[in-house]
Design goal:
With 190 residues, the protein is α/β, with parallel strands linked by helices. The chain has a single domain, classed as Rossmann fold, CATH 3.40.50. Helix content is 42%, strand content 14%. The chain has a six-stranded mixed β-sheet with strand order 3-2-4-1-5-6, sandwiched between helices. Helix 2 packs across helix 3 and helix 7 packs across helix 8. It is globular.
Length: 190
């Protein structure tokens, strides 16, 4: 199993579309009031971690950028396009109920969000998504903070934990917390 440096993974705070159960993928939706609170909670958790001077990275999407600004307390971070959420193709912008009505076979066959996004017509697909996340992880040279997205986090965490795709899709996907990934294990910081 590949060895990666310590990673503190932060999923962005809740967005308006999260609250509506609407698929964002690579589309934009602002943080909700609860999402801003999630980011402030992460900022409190990050205070002692930032004293260790880790490298900090964020997805280019607005919700992750906004979360990073708050959670990293204005500390500089690098934006990396490989940290964008999975492109969910034609499903982006639709609520889960709309997906169930319009694409019932795809919806039924993919009960986990990771699988649903990766099965999206005209979407990115799992292999491309996995490969860009793994590619990013192999460039990390030391302890790093990553502010990105739920499904991306499931895959990144799954890579560290050595999980197959089916198990990655079942990982928790919490907001307002930090997943500490180190030496093949993860710990949830709340």
């Amino acid at each position: 199993m590949a060895h990666f440096p310590k990673i503190w993974f932060l999923r962005h705070g809740q967005t308006e579309w999260n609250a509506e159960r609407r698929i964002q993928g690579q589309l934009e939706s602002r943080l909700s009031h609860l999402g801003l609170e999630h980011a402030r909670r992460q900022a409190d958790l990050m205070a002692p971690i930032l004293q260790q001077n880790p490298a900090c990275y964020a997805s280019p999407l607005g919700r992750a950028q906004q979360t990073a600004e708050i959670a990293l307390r204005g500390l500089g971070f690098r934006t990396d396009a490989r940290l964008a959420e999975a492109d969910a193709g034609l499903l982006q912008g639709m609520t889960l109920d709309e997906v169930e009505r319009r694409y019932p076979d795809i919806y039924r066959a993919n009960p986990c969000h990771l699988d649903l996004f990766c099965a999206a017509p005209e979407g990115e697909g799992f292999d491309s998504f996995f490969n860009r996340i793994h590619d990013f992880m192999t460039t990390l040279e030391g302890p790093s903070v990553v502010v990105a997205h739920g499904l991306l986090g499931q895959v990144m965490r799954g890579i560290v934990l050595g999980l197959p795709r089916s198990e990655m899709a079942k990982l928790s996907n919490e907001q307002g917390c930090i997943y500490l990934l180190e030496e093949g294990s993860e710990r949830l910081l709340k």
